[in-house]
Give the backbone structure.
Amino acid sequence: LYSSHEIVLESLNYSNDTKDYCQTTCMICDKEMFLMRMRGHTKDKHDMSITDYKLKFNLQGFKIISKVFHKCGVCSEIMLLDADTIGTHLHKHDITHKAYNENS
């Protein structure tokens, strides 16, 4: 018998493909983009640091419009399919993102 937690985990949308990275919408100009692009976007297009952007809109994180998950190939931990999120996680395993992608 599956627990309700296992059923929820199995129902999530998973991918390893960069074209499926999680997306958000800029709250200033309504442009949709990958989460990892927001830092550069707010700076380049709106002359605002990501910290100031989050403060302006009272955000702890981003509102995700396309939520896709990734299961770590090393430890099976589930996380958002986002380059920054995966990169931060990979520090636990002392592996670079490049090396991880080459071995996946």
